[in-house]
Design goal:
Distance between the termini of chain A: 28 Å
Strand content of chain B: under 5%
Largest interface: A-B, 38 and 36 residues
Strand content of chain A: under 5%
Number of helices of chain B: 7
Oligomer: heterodimer
Helix content of chain B: over 70%
Order of helices and strands of chain A: HHHHHH
Helix content of chain A: over 70%
Largest sheet of chain B: none
Structural class of chain A: mainly alpha
Number of strands of chain A: 0
Shape of chain B: elongated
Order of helices and strands of chain B: HHHHHHH
Number of helices of chain A: 6
Number of strands of chain B: 0
Structural class of chain B: mainly alpha
């Protein structure tokens, strides 16, 4: 079975056919996805700003990172299901042919992996042992990866 | 060009609503409980304001691309209505509840009036986002 066959199977499954029969469902799911995005933005930014030396800079990095991670997980719990549903709606007729979709699918695992391995390790590490240059580098990589995800996502959403 | 502005508008959504949501969550006592409310506000609100400015400029450009069409759009009107209410919520907060912040600055869970503001703010931004996302759908539903 090819990838396209698989996508067709998703798009024409009974659940998805039912979902598309109402013109309200897709924009509502898309709106929830945007709310999740805003929350993700906040949770990612307060840590990256702190790593760059802005934002809550007089608070311990580890504390900020722990507080933010909880809301990052909440945002992902909103983003992933709503994203998957949007994808399933037009998997075979639209997403399969969009470069932006494949770019996002490459950037998203990278962003997640980087956030939950490298960035988390740096954030909870003893700040005095690490040069601030590393913190800044980690923040720049994190912001670049997530920006790629967001920009590619926006490009998928075009009619 | 329209596409670039639209992308900027969505990117800045993360900065603006993202940092605003973190402040609101602190007001609700749901995050950064050990950090003073006034410190969260002082450190994050400049970023929120910067984001808001970019939102306003990019949003105005998106409006200017099709002024008549937007003006006639019910979702656009609802979005602008919610924007006014959200602004009012911020104004009322700063001129009443926030004046007594010294008394509850370190409370892990701020008083009810502060929690109300934070909750209302989150609801209004969520509504605003939904209305914004619905703007292109008027043609399918209502015409």
């Amino acid at each position: 079975m090819s990838v396209l066959d698989f996508f067709e199977g998703l798009q024409y499954s009974p659940l998805l056919v039912a979902m598309r029969s109402s013109s309200w469902v897709f924009p509502i799911i898309a709106s929830l996805h945007l709310m999740g995005l805003a929350l993700l933005g906040g949770a990612v930014l307060i840590v990256d700003l702190r790593l760059l030396g802005f934002g809550l800079r007089s608070q311990p990095l580890e504390q900020i990172a722990r507080d933010a991670e909880r809301w990052l997980l909440v945002s992902l719990a909103v983003l992933l299901p709503t994203g998957i549903l949007q994808f399933m709606c037009f998997a075979a007729t639209k997403y399969y042919y969009l470069t932006a979709f494949w770019v996002k699918m490459a950037a998203l695992p990278l962003a997640l992996l980087f956030t939950f391995t490298v960035r988390r390790t740096v954030a909870v590490a003893d700040e005095t042992r690490l040069s601030p240059v590393w913190n800044k580098l980690v923040a720049v990589v994190s912001l670049s990866l997530w920006s790629t995800v967001v920009i590619a996502g926006r490009l998928i959403g075009l009619p | 060009m329209y596409l670039i502005v639209l992308t900027v508008h969505v990117m800045t959504l993360c900065l603006f609503v993202g940092t605003a949501a973190m402040v609101d969550l602190r007001l609700l006592g749901l995050t950064m409980q050990k950090v003073r409310v006034s410190e969260v506000m002082a450190r994050l609100l400049p970023w929120t304001s910067a984001g808001f400015l970019v939102m306003l400029v990019s949003g105005a450009l998106l409006f200017y691309a099709a002024p008549l069409l937007r003006y006639q759009n019910v979702f656009f009107r609802a979005k602008m209505g919610a924007l006014v209410l959200a602004g009012l919520n911020v104004w009322v907060f700063h001129n009443s509840v926030y004046r007594s912040v010294a008394e509850w600055d370190l409370d892990p869970i701020p008083p009810r009036s502060a929690r109300m503001t934070g909750g209302l703010s989150l609801l209004l931004w969520a509504f605003l986002i939904t209305m914004g996302r619905m703007i292109p759908y008027q043609v399918y539903w209502l015409n």
